[in-house]
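Researcher: Structure prediction, please.
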Amino acid sequence: MELDHATIVTRDLESARDFLSGIVGLSDGPRPPFQAGGYGLYADGRPVIHLVEATRPAFEGKASVRIDHVALRIDDATE
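Model: Predicted structure follows.
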């Protein structure tokens, strides 16, 4: 089993993209035409971060940036 990708939702796409590209070393790549804006960020030719623009205001007192989901890849049913 291994990490396939994670989706991060943020109201500040550009800052998140700059951080993940400049500091973490991810690069822009193709992204499906989702309704919300965002970026597909890649490592070693694989999409590892789906960066998605928050479409609703954050709840009062809570941070707007969140990990929406994490996907795991398995090779067979025994995993």
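Model: Residues 13-22 form the longest helix (10 residues).
Researcher: Thanks, that helps.
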